[in-house]
Amino acid sequence: NRQFLLDSRPQGEARADNFKLVTGDTPALKEGEVLVRHHYLSLDPYMRGRMDDAKSYAAPQPLGQVMQGGTVGEVVESRSPRFQAGDKVVGMGGWQEYAVVSAEQGGLRKVDTTHVPLSHYLGAVGMPGVTAWYGLTQIIQPKAGQTVVVSAASGAVGSAVGVLAKQRGCRAVGIAGGPDKCRYVEQELGFDACVDYRQYADAPSLARALKEACPGGIDGLFENVGGMVLDAVMLRMNDFGRIAVCGMIAGYEGKPIPLAYPQVILRSRLLVQGFIVSEHMELWPQGLQELGQLVGSGKFRPRESVAQGLESAPDAFLGMLKGRNFGKQVVKLV
Ligand code: NDP
Fold first, then answer.
1. What are the residue boundaries of the Enoyl reductase (ER) domain, all occurrences included (predicted)?
2. Is the pLDDT reported for residue 221 higher than 90?
């Protein structure tokens, strides 16, 4: 069983040598446990925060232990009546080829792959999808006809935000890096517009481009990035607009991302609310149901960046932190 451990904490930017590839044993199953062979690992921005030991909402990833993270795979052996060999499951198996998991406490869930491909349970029909659903429906709460903007729009969370906003009759506008991502957001995801932030040197010039894309101003912002992108959108917010603060990826490697126009929060009487999706587990079934239907019916075709083989995990992860992924970043093992 090959595994990646967190070997050291980053000094500044994370590097491939913070991780160590080892070959470990798979312990024999005890009563109530199952053995899962992982087909895909999920790589997510939150993992960068856990590599540090700074205070955060989640405990740091312990050094010398398998990198924690979401996984999908197949049960190959079971000593629990709840799972059988052959079941497809989603869990938190970490960066390794196999995981021994407690059927009761391991957070393992059976999934149906008849209409939804297995890997999408790590993305659109999984944690990132529910993140989009939660921020949009519980914080932004848009009405039909309102304009919702989302940053990192081609990514796992951002793509779902736009699709869910369109379902609610909103104008959905994305912000993404580069012409290919913007083309995908408009043409394949069905957003009304997408602005390539890389074309603009500062927040005021990006805000001018957003004025064209959002002629009626912006009622809801789903923020994934922070920094210049957030500043620009804030300049276009309508009175009583809502900002769901989901992520601040521009600052995850330690770069300061000061807020340029905090006075807009007062002037426009904005609601600004951060959230952590894992603190709202009671709403996951509702979100997953809508997302599963959208993906299963083909109305939402999420895109993935697939890295091949366990050994590719560190580089794929570091690339995602630099925006090199295009869609949900996963690692394919089988
Ligand atoms: P994505 O698939 O969106 O990948 C990250 C993307 O961020 C990159 O592809 C890149 O796209 C974009 N990006 C923009 N600015 C930067 C920058 N300065 N440095 C690096 N990347 C940048 O990831 P996810 O969909 O998984 O996550 C999106 C956000 O949601 C993250 O901030 C994440 O932390 C957050 N999140 C929050 C949760 C919560 O509970 N609050 C749960 C899950 C995710 P581009 O090329 O378009 O710039």
1. 14-331
2. yes
Query: Where are the CATH 3.40.50.720 domain residues in the chain?
Result: 127-278
Those residues with Cβ within 8 angstroms of residue 293's Cβ, 6 or more apart along the chain or in another chain: none
276 lines ligand 1 (CB under 6 A): yes
Topology given in CATH for the domain delimited by 2-123+303-332 = Quinone Oxidoreductase; Chain A, domain 1 (3.90.180)
The predicted pLDDT at position 54 comes to 86
SS3 16: helix
250 Cβ inside 6 Å of ligand 1: yes
* Homologous superfamily of 127-278: NAD(P)-binding Rossmann-like Domain (3.40.50.720)
Could you tell me the pLDDT band of residue 52, with boundaries at 50, 70 and 90?
Answer: very high
Residue 59: pLDDT band with limits 50, 70, 90: confident
User: How far is the CA of 262 from the CAs of 154, 227, 243, 283, 313, in angstroms?
Assistant: 27, 12, 13, 31, 38
